Hints:
Layout: E1 5-10, H1 16-32, E2 36-39, H2 46-55, E3 57-60, E4 71-74, H3 81-89, E5 93-96, H4 100-114, E6 118-122, H5 128-136, E7 141-144, H6 147-152, E8 161-165, H7 171-184, H8 198-211, E9 216-220, H9 226-237, E10 241-245, E11 261-266, H10 272-283, E12 289-294
Parallel strand pairs: 1-11, 1-12, 2-3, 2-4, 4-5, 6-7, 6-8, 9-10, 9-11
Helix pairs in contact: 4-5, 8-9
Amino acid sequence: MAVSKVLLAAPRGYCAGVDRAVETVERSIKQFGTPIYVRKQIVHNLPVVRDLESKGAIFVDELSEVPEGATVVLSAHGVAPEVYREVEARDLQAIDATCPLVTKVHNEAKRFALDGYDIVLIGHEGHEEVIGTMGEAPNSITLIGTPEEAERLTLSRPDHVAYVSQTTLSVDETNEVIDVLRRRFPSIQGPPREDICYATQNRQQAVKAIASRSDVVLVIGSHNSSNSNRLAEVAASLGARAHLIDDETEIQPEWFDDAKTVGVTSGASAPEWLVDRVLGYFRDRGVTDVEEVTVIEEDVHFALPKELGR
Length: 310
């Protein structure tokens, strides 16, 4: 192997919302016993889901798969109001692990809808977070994802428009969309603070710092993870050969042909033990030079759902 150096991005891995969600499932198992049902993947990371399954969690796609009266954890991505109505109708004991930053977007959408705005949601169609946000005001929200869609957008009241966004988007690409919206709808209203979460922004800044110095960048994260995909795209935009992997078993040696420096980062739903395993892959092949590149220190924590105490 020609690789002689690994650059390790910081911050990386779990954000406060993911940490809270995973701990919610683990604490629920301890407090209420098994099985604990979880609607959808608690976070978009397959190894984490498999680990929680081994501890007694059962993941389901729909609440109809949960026995009446059972305990169910709702994923970090948030849900539409109809899900809460189904929880009540089926007498389920729900523990809401929605990330507080996603809840913030839901509240913004409800506020804008109540004030009569046509709402533009910037996000990816079909993503669970987008589905949940649109469910808060389905008659008021129009979904777009690109500057081109923003250029084509027609709204019934162009002077009474507001926007919100998915929390895990590319910062640069989202700003491009917002620039178009502001040009086309000069009176458009936005959230008091931007919706893309602090962790998504910080991880994108960190991957920029290592990609510019790397021949290859490995992003540890699952393919259904929006923020992990964005990290790979950011790395590739800076000229690095970027690969998204769940773990070290997916690494292909030919990726490193003529590569001397490899960058490593992980999405906000990837645990540090996966990073350790990827670093072990390189150590086993004689790479001892590992440099951590830190762009910002994070110190954000969210309290667990009230059902689990403190």
